[in-house]
Amino acid sequence: MAKTRHIYLKKLYDPSVNKQQWIAHQSEERYLLYGGAYGGGKTAMGINEGIALRVEYPGNRGFMGCRDGTDFKRNAFNQLMKFLPPELYAPPRGVHHQSDMYIKLINGSVIYYGGLGNDAEAVKKISNMPELGWFFIDQAEEITENQFMLLDGRLRLVLSGIKYRALLTANPDPGWLRTRFISEARPNHRYIPALPKDNPFLPSNYEEILKKNFTKDMARRMLEGDWDVEGIDQLIPYPDIRDAIKRDMPAKGSTVAGLDVAEFGGAKTVFIARQGNKVIDIVSWFHQDTEFSAGTVAELIRKHKLVILNIDSIGKGGEVVVLLKNDYPCVRGVNVSEQASQPDRYINKRAEFYGKLAKRFEMGEIDIPDHTALGAELVNLHKKYPRARLQIESKEKMRARGVPSPDFADALMLAFASDGIKQEASMYIRGRRVG
């Protein structure tokens, strides 16, 4: 290992205390997948390997990002700025150009960063990149193999002695990563598991707490890094739900609501209203016809002065939409079985809306009450990724495994399914006010 790499790898980050991180940094393969479990130090490894490649090879260029640029800025970018010594990009020889999203080091190396987007967006973005010596993709399970191959095609920077690297981190998921790195173990590919037991910086009871909240299969995947477990998992981890219950965010901004209308049996009709990111009202009823539901909802619209009310228009919900829409312009029928706005990422609108709701829980941008039924339904939502697209377990399959219809969860999903509404989310990072 070059002397400069050794210095800067250990200045703000010491991988020698995490055996798997150290092995990853010593690897020589062009394609490296480091991951497999929560808390294994995946992002820190990728960030610091990128830093080392820039220091070791003056004039090197690399890209660092993930599918969603906002996700990158909220997570990996913060670690980049934490671990990158300021003297490496100090003016006048260095520069950090935030609007163009690149950092130039004093030795002439450059890092570009940001989100790739969907396949169409990625083709345009990657095609406009200069020739690279390396790239690092965090949460690589969220990008397509096509995006990966396009980036690989940019690894052609001519530099004396350069070592081309494609660095990926991911949690276990079925799809192209498993096939390429694990099932087929292709030449010049290497998979190194990252497990919480290898990370000395985690709380001593980290695994114990998560094992209590995870299902057996989820624990095998997210704590033991098992890629062979069936590709179904909790959509929203229990700790994220508990954090949202404990959170106290202001009720500020537009008031929006979601309504899930019951069709039969023991299912309930559920109304959930939010103001900004805070859920402010939950009302439910059952064994009532659509006229009763429409009348009750009309009172709730007036009470909360709703800007938007999203109603699942499939089945009985469509009848409620018809009864209300002429008198209340805020009413919108939503068919969650329709094609998503990003069909290469989500199976349908239901998956898209739930995927974005799960991201709110992950990033601390939601405040919910301690409501027993809502919490239980959220923790029982399962996901999988057929053909690398998010799919939410159907209500029929949930009933088959003895789980009731997610009426409260669906109403919450609909309440947060509104685009174009000014939010307070940008003012918070993981539930903490930043502005």
Give a brief rundown of this model.
With 435 residues, the protein is an alpha/beta fold. It is built from 17 helices and 18 strands. It has two domains: 3-228, P-loop containing nucleotide triphosphate hydrolases (Rossmann fold); 239-433, Nucleotidyltransferase, domain 5, CATH 3.30.420.
Walk me through what this model shows:
It is a single chain. With 435 residues, the chain is of the alpha/beta class. The chain folds into two domains: 226 residues, P-loop containing nucleotide triphosphate hydrolases (Rossmann fold); 195 residues, Nucleotidyltransferase, domain 5. It contains 17 helices and 18 strands. The strands form four sheets. The protein has an eight-stranded mixed sheet with strand order 3-4-5-2-6-7-1-8, sandwiched between helices. A five-stranded mixed sheet has the order 12-11-10-13-14. A three-stranded antiparallel sheet has the order 9-15-16. Strand 6, helix 7 and strand 7 form a beta-alpha-beta unit. Helix 3 packs across helix 5. The N terminus and C terminus are likely disordered.
The share of residues in helices is: 25-40%
Backbone shape: elongated
- SS-derived structural category: alpha/beta
* Architecture per CATH nomenclature, i.e. the level-2 architecture of the largest domain: 3-Layer(aba) Sandwich
And the CATH topology of the largest domain?
Answer: Rossmann fold
Q: Which whole number gives the mean pLDDT? A: 84
Order the strands across the largest sheet as they lie in space. 3-4-5-2-6-7-1-8
- Which spans of ≥5 residues are poorly predicted at pLDDT below 50? 1-8, 420-435
Number of domains: 2
Count the DSSP helices.
Answer: 17
Rg is 24 Å
Let me know the largest β-sheet: 8 strands, mixed
CATH superfamily of the largest domain: P-loop containing nucleotide triphosphate hydrolases
Number of E strands = 18
Residues in β-strands, percent: 15-25%
Termini Cα gap: 43 Å
For the record, what CATH class of the largest domain applies? Alpha Beta
